[in-house]
Amino acid sequence: MRAGNSQPVGQAAQPPSYFAAVPPAPPLGPLYAIEAMMSVGGTLLSIGIVFVMNQRFGWQMRQNFLLAAGQGLIYVPGALSARWVAGRFGRRAALAWIYLVLAALALAAAAARSPLVIASLLLAFTLVIGLSWPMLESLATSGVDAAGVAGRLGTYNVIWPLAGFVAIAVEGVIIRHWTAGVFIIPAGMCLASAGLLAVGNRSAAPIAPHDSAPAPAPEPQLLRLQTLALWLSRVALPATYTVIYGLMPLMPSLPTMKRLSPENQTLVGSVWLGTRWLAFVLLGLGTWWHTRPRALLWSAVLMLVSFFGLTLAPSVVFPAAHLSQVIDLTSLIAWQGVLGVALGMIYSGSLYFGMVLSEGSTEHGGYHEALIGVGWAIGPAAGAAVQIARPGDVIAGITAVGAVIAATVVLVLLTAALGARRQHLQ
After folding, report:
1. For 350-365, how does the pLDDT look when each residue is reduced to its tens digit (9 = 90+)?
2. In CATH, what is the architecture of 28-207+218-425?
3. DSSP letter string over 87-113?
């Protein structure tokens, strides 16, 4: 297994940052453009769809939790099927057809008038887009050594979260002035992505393998650190999406958010996406975290604390203090900032260590995305179960989702303890 360059124990390979660095092969530009467009489309129809269903159909926590849980469940088999589909049809050809199907589903949702029909189409959209991400990640990172993977993932992890952040920030304006655009814009992005792949198949050479000699295996201690970091990030990764898809159905029902206009709701609710993007930028500038699994551990703890911090407004926790709405809003924004940084650290670890240790395979990209689907499902499912018993109870919803996150953080702590003990014994 080729995982990186041999160097002193405890030091990671020093990849160039994505600002200087591994010069991308010609096909990478279109792949990054596709990544940005599909991030916009996918974000609008997953994270942001709760605002659409709330404003258009009056959906509350229970309905939005159920939709999010269904999307998470259906995303898992989609992601795990990516390897077979890519092997059967080829990654580029499969992606082109996938994007055409996604465009058709989004256009059908734009024309639909029933919330149940729209929800069904969204489930189908989620299944199909689950196929696409492992293939795109694999195309962007395969054929190079660990340093090349780090450089390309640095670029990759700056593009998609920035595109998603912009999509949610402006979604409120789209909802108010062109509601159908929430579905038509993703359809256009899918069609453009399919077109780029079709042109690339005819005019661009495939990504060439790295032309240097195969890199020797890393030192055993470095490999153990990387493997421990991979397990920590992958145990924590589902919890990050438990937070995201447990938080977003709650967002429109939070007392602080209810006081805002639709435009301001999505703008305020996008803060965590912005700080997650900033975390990706900062992580891409350095390699210190490549050999520090403890950073993932503390990120998981911080993620749990910030979830409760942003959902429990100061005026709710301290009702006798008569705190102002400005304090509630400031708290909501500040805790989102902390949450975004923690989410960025965990996501970067899972994708980086998985791709380095698997040499950028579609299979491991599928595992990464499937773990996302697991977290996407279990958090909203817990919230939905509580809402069935106690409809409209925001505190109950927060507690249910928070309990799932807390259980995952405990599992991360146990994984860290077992990993440290194993290293000590060796």
Report:
1. 767 766 666 555 666 6
2. Up-down Bundle (1.20)
3. HHH-HHHHHHHHHHHHHHHHHHHHH--
